[in-house]
Amino acid sequence: MRRSRIQLSRATCVLFIVCFSGMLALAPSRLMAQPPCTSMYGSITYDTVFTSTDGNETYTASFPQFPISALTLYAVTVRSVVTVNSGMTIENYNNTAVNANVKYYRNDDFTSGPTGDFNNTVFGSNYSAPGLGPYTTQTFPPVNTINNNSIIVDSLDTNDGTLNNTPGGYFVGNGNIAVTYSSTTQPLISPSNVAINSSTLTDQIHFSWTYYYCNTGTLAADLLSFTAVRQGQDVQLGWNTTGEQAGRIYNLQVSTDGTTFSDYAAVPSTVINSDASYSYTYPIPSGATGKLYFRLRIADVIGPDHYSSVCIINLNSAGATGFSIFPNPPSDYINLILPGDNRSWQVDIIAADGHLVQRNAFANTSLPRINFTRKLASGAYFVRATNILSGDSHTGSFVIPQ
To answer: Which of 10, 223, 293, 327 is exposed most, by the fewest CB atoms within 10 A?
Structure first.
């Protein structure tokens, strides 16, 4: 079961990096009754993959309770992305020709565990045989009849426990929550006296469980970007600021689990009331594996500490990925460079106060252009690009000047 941690940011992280994004605005709207979060929104996601050979299975899984008692839990959601591959031979038992059609009805739901409104119902594409002769057959090779690439997110019923840090709350603790997940795949055949002579079917379910929470600490409003790039046995860290403050200290923090961060080095501010750029070379420890998490703890002379986004370096990955936004600042559009080959993406533009500004979907591209549907007010905006098939997401920011 893969674990990923997501955090809202003004920063863009490129090359081997996943920058966490988890705006609560992307969680179901009916869970917004919690008090407003005055700091950083984030989420923790656990996910797994189920497979079967007939599409009618029951699966059991165990997900950790929300593990961070110092944070406020706002919502719990589940997501299911289903793919069904099937081939078949259909036969006409009528004594006249018919327009034969077969398609699959698919339903996924919980049968035990937290109750809720999670119910993923999908109808597959047709296997169509127009004018199929009497007592004849037609064979269809295996294809993805259901390729549910849309991300379906539903909230769990809060009656199962309190969505906060109350001791004994259903979702909060150091134990696990067991769930039973069932899938049903049934053919719908028309007209009468048409039947499936033979068939094959396999399915795959990408199932994930997400905690949305309000993090401690606040983001630095004048931090324009924070990036991390692996170069051999080093990680090159860089950040840009505007309106730099005298006496500021940038404390570079490192973590191996994304939860517990330790100060590693301190970099003082160098200019006053101007834009500034900084860099630091972090040596990767010999023999290190897994992931390294980086962020900045920004200490000013007066006031509380502020933080950057979290950026991840995957030491086990052999490839490089990149994500960027241009032009920045934009006028009436932005271009994105998305990692990997041409894929399908959902792209959200989110205002600094957390509300969704616009949502676009793109297929088979890594260089989408996004025209703004309305004139944007001055301020910072966040972009979250989600790979529709895998669920991987990348985040960055742009600024509309005054």
So the answer is: 327
* 195, 24 contact by CB (below 8 A): no
Report which of 4, 392, 347, 52 is spatially closest to residue 209, judged by C-alpha positions.
Answer: 4
Determine the Cα–Cα distance for residues 388 and 393; give it in Å rounded to an integer.
9
Report CA 41 to chain centroid distance, whole Å.
Answer: 14
**What does residue 174 show for φ and ψ, rounded to 5 degrees?**
-110, 10
Helix (H/G/I), strand (E/B), else coil: 14: coil
Give the start-end residues of each E strand in 26-136.
41-52, 57-64, 72-92, 98-112, 119-123, 127-132
Residues 326-367 pLDDT 10s: 787 888 999 887 776 667 888 888 886 667 889 898 888 888
As a whole number of angstroms, the distance between CA 45 and CA 41 comes to: 14
CB 89 within 8 A of CB 100: no
The secondary structure of residue 66, as a DSSP letter, is B
At 241, list the tokens.
């600021």
Residue 130: alpha-carbon gap to chain centroid: 41
What residues pair up with 196 in beta bridges, in sequence order? 90
Fold of 323-402: Immunoglobulin-like (2.60.40)
Question: Which residue type sits at 306?
Answer: H
Among 137, 200, 138, 154, residue whose Cα is nearest residue 27 = 154
Whether residue 347 contacts residue 398, with contact meaning beta carbons closer than 8 Å, is answered with: no
Q: What is the pTM of this model?
A: 0.49
Say if CB 218 and CB 235 are below 8 A apart. Answer: no
- pLDDT tens for each residue of 164-175: 444 445 677 767
Q: Do residues 187 and 196 touch, judged by C-beta distance below 8 A?
A: yes
Residue pair 203/83 in contact by the 8 Å Cβ criterion: yes
* Structure-token match 């917004």, residue found: 32
72, 229 in Cβ contact below 8 A? no
What's the N-to-C CA distance of the chain in angstroms?
45
